[in-house]
Design brief:
7-stranded mixed beta barrel, alpha+beta, 13 strands, 252 residues
C-alpha cells in the first residue's frame, strides 16, 4: 500500500508540473453590474510605471476620485491582472480583467473605437475630452548619404529623424508597429533624436538624446505612435498624433 501511495503522489506531482499555465477564466457579467460594483471609476492616462507601481492621471472622475487626481495601482502578476503600459488611456473600474475596465487608447496612440463608443454612451461624450496625446508633423527628408529619410517634429520642439523611406511605412500592415532605434548612428533603419526648443538641430537649447520611435498607425493623412526618450537612468514616454506634410524631396 505505501508503495502504491508514493507512486500515485509522484505521478500527481509530475502531472501538475507538466500542466500548462492556465489563462484567466471568469464568467462575463453585465457591464452595468460591473460599473455599479466598482469602488473607483474614472477615465485617465498612465503617466508613470515605477517598478510595477502604476500612476494614473485622472482626467474624468466618475466614482471615488476627482478630475485631476493621481491614482496609483500596484500591478499584479496573475493572469487575471491587467497589464498596464505607460501612455495608455483607460476607462478604469479595477485592475482585474473581470472588473469591466476598458482600454480607450493604447501606448502607440491608437484609439480603441468600440471601447470609446461604450464610454461615450455610458458617461457622455464630454467624458472623453482631453487625453495626453501630443500633436506632431511627419514629412519626408534625406539621410546624410542622400538616401531617403523622414522627420517627426513634435509640438514643443523635439525632432526625431529616421533613415528610412516612408514607402516602408505605407506598406506596413495596419495592425503592425514599426520600431526605429534613435541612437545617432548613420545607418539605415536608425535615426537621431534632438529634444528641447528645436527649430533646427544647431540651436543651443537643442540637445542630442537617444531613444526609440514606434509608429502604431499610418495612412495618407497621418497616424499615431510613441517616443521613448532615454537620458541616463531616466526614461520618459511621449504618445503623439501626427499629420503628414506631403512635399516632394529629391535625395542624391
Amino acid at each position: 500500500m505505501p508503495c502504491r501511495f508514493y507512486a500515485f503522489t509522484l505521478l500527481a506531482a509530475l502531472l501538475l508540473l507538466a500542466a500548462p499555465a492556465q489563462a484567466c477564466r471568469f464568467i462575463p457579467q453585465d457591464p452595468a453590474v460591473l460599473a455599479a460594483a466598482a469602488k473607483v471609476a474614472f477615465i485617465g492616462t498612465i503617466r508613470t510605471d515605477e517598478v510595477g507601481l502604476i500612476f494614473f492621471h485622472v482626467e474624468k472622475g466618475i466614482k471615488g476620485v476627482k478630475d485631476g487626481d493621481e491614482f496609483t495601482v500596484e500591478m499584479g502578476k496573475s493572469s487575471c491582472d491587467i497589464r498596464f503600459e505607460v501612455g495608455q488611456r483607460w476607462l478604469y473600474q479595477g485592475q482585474m480583467q473581470m472588473s469591466g475596465s476598458r482600454m480607450l487608447r493604447d501606448e502607440y496612440g491608437r484609439d480603441m473605437v468600440d471601447n470609446m463608443a461604450y464610454a461615450a454612451k455610458t458617461y457622455g461624450a464630454d467624458a472623453l475630452k482631453g487625453g495626453e496625446r501630443v500633436d506632431a508633423t511627419l514629412e519626408p527628408t534625406c539621410a546624410p548619404w542622400d538616401g531617403a529619410a523622414f522627420s517627426l517634429k513634435l509640438a514643443g520642439g523635439t525632432i526625431a529623424t529616421v533613415y528610412d523611406s516612408l514607402t516602408k511605412l505605407e506598406e506596413k500592415p495596419a495592425t503592425a508597429v514599426a520600431v526605429y532605434p534613435l541612437d545617432g548612428k548613420p545607418e539605415h533603419g536608425k535615426g537621431t533624436l534632438y529634444s528641447g526648443m528645436c527649430r533646427d538641430r544647431g540651436e543651443i537649447e537643442c540637445r542630442a538624446q537617444t531613444g526609440m520611435l514606434s509608429i502604431g498607425s499610418f495612412d495618407s493623412a497621418g497616424g499615431t505612435g510613441m517616443l521613448d526618450i532615454q537620458e541616463g537612468e531616466h526614461s520618459s514616454r511621449i504618445v503623439f498624433k501626427f499629420t503628414r506634410v506631403n512635399r516632394k524631396v529629391i535625395c542624391g
